[in-house]
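Proteins fold reproducibly. Take a sample protein:
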Amino acid sequence: MIDSHTHLALCTEPDAALVEAARAAGVERIVTVGTDAQSCAQALAAAEAFDGVYAAIGCHPNNAELLDEDQLRRDAAHPRCVAIGETGLDYYRDRSPRDAQRRAFEFHIELAREVDKPLVIHTRDAATDTLTLLHSQAAGLRVVLHCFSMPEHLAQCIDAGWWFSFAGNVTYPKNVAIAAAAALAPIERLLVETDAPYLAPQSRRGRPNEPAAVVETATFVAAQRGLTYEDLETAIHASATSVFRW
């Protein structure tokens, strides 16, 4: 299995222990995501240190005012960097001014185009503005909708040709619409993730998440689609390879 989005730097356990546990659970590849300059450096260091670990580098919208364009450009050129982001818009926490979030988002789009790497999207309570900006500026880019949370816009996102990554919250009983989206998203553009240490799947709720737990999320998604775990695993490997090109 593949954990397409995690934050090793934010987990309490050492990277080596997290990677070892993930491998024991059958997780062969992990994309660890930076959200500011320090965590981007940590993500790249982890990708250098462990086979099967790759980095995504970006400036989270909550950190938009801290964007260092020159540093991100240097990080984006690293051979173990497979994606740009997470980036996008967050109107739920609103920790950065919205104009700063938009400028940072636009820079990430430009950078993804420059280096020909996929764009990883975070959006919370900002679906309309996020989609408008993606449609107007990200045409032709490979786009990953991290922790997919816009089931009401599923058809539009399918038509755009984007990838759908489902996190542990898809397993929560109240998230019926997200679970339905996991059943309907094109299998050739389907991913699963942990977003660790956040969004632990149902059996782990209330405890920190970790990459090994992506297996529970994948098992749930397979059941939603009427697939065996092995068939879903094969499909996710193909989908991840097509977007990350590792």
Remarks:
- The mean pLDDT is 97.
- The chain has one domain: 2-244.
